[in-house]
Write a structure and sequence with these properties.
Elements: H1 3-11, E1 24-28, H2 31-34, E2 51-59, E3 67-71, E4 77-79, E5 81-84, H3 90-101, E6 108-111, H4 122-132, E7 136-140, E8 145-146, E9 149-150, H5 157-165, H6 169-185
Parallel strand pairs: 1-7
Antiparallel strand pairs: 1-5, 2-3, 2-4, 6-7, 8-9
């Protein structure tokens, strides 16, 4: 060991413990923005995430009846939001997002991943992450779902409108609020409530 390193360890006895923090970020485009719940954000949502095809294409599993925003093949590109997360590893951040979303772990994307990714747009996300110098990126990777069929988006905008119109009044009101106010606002300051 050289003199230079001996001096560092003599005056900074815990220097070997000071590893650079992992740059772990989460992408968002829907309710996660204004209602992160227990997800530990380490900053505010930034408006310059990767452009992904996002659409109101998934009926909510929680019985609320909303159509939620998901990555959807063929949808128009939307610039996503991102925030740093306060987790020590990509694995722990992914588990936390799975908990927040109430979904299976396979429905939370992570970059990088060994081998070929099964998540749609993972290549776009990876290119963006590399350009930003991030170590890990996680995102909700739930597929479209309509008429109880995973992977199937509403066949048309009219079908989505008819679906929402068929819900009971409270569900319609909540769905209308989600679609017209919250999702368009893209603001993390809108309180959780529904």
């Amino acid at each position: 060991m050289s003199i230079k390193y001996r001096i560092v360890f003599k005056y900074l006895p815990h220097a070997s413990c000071y590893a650079a923090s992992m740059k772990i970020v989460c992408l968002a485009w829907g309710s996660l923005v204004w209602c992160p719940r227990d997800l530990k954000l380490a900053g505010t949502w930034q408006p310059d995430g990767p452009e992904l095809p996002i659409e109101f294409a998934r009926t909510s599993d929680g019985g609320e009846g909303r159509l939620t925003l998901v990555v959807t093949p063929g949808a128009a590109g939307v610039t996503t939001l991102w925030s740093f997360l306060d987790y020590p590893t990509g694995k722990s951040a992914r588990a936390a997002l799975r908990q927040r979303e109430g979904c299976r772990l396979r429905d939370v994307g992570i970059w990088p991943v060994a081998g070929a990714s099964r998540w749609f747009c993972a290549d776009v996300i990876g290119e963006w992450a590399e350009s930003q110098g991030f170590d890990h990126v996680i995102w909700t990777a739930l597929p479209p779902k309509f008429d109880h069929q995973d992977g199937v988006p509403p066949p048309s905008a009219q079908a989505a409108i008819e679906y929402l119109a068929s819900r009971d009044p409270k569900v319609r009101q909540d769905a209308d609020e989600y679609v017209s106010t919250r999702a368009k606002a893209g603001s993390h300051t809108i309180p959780c409530g529904v």
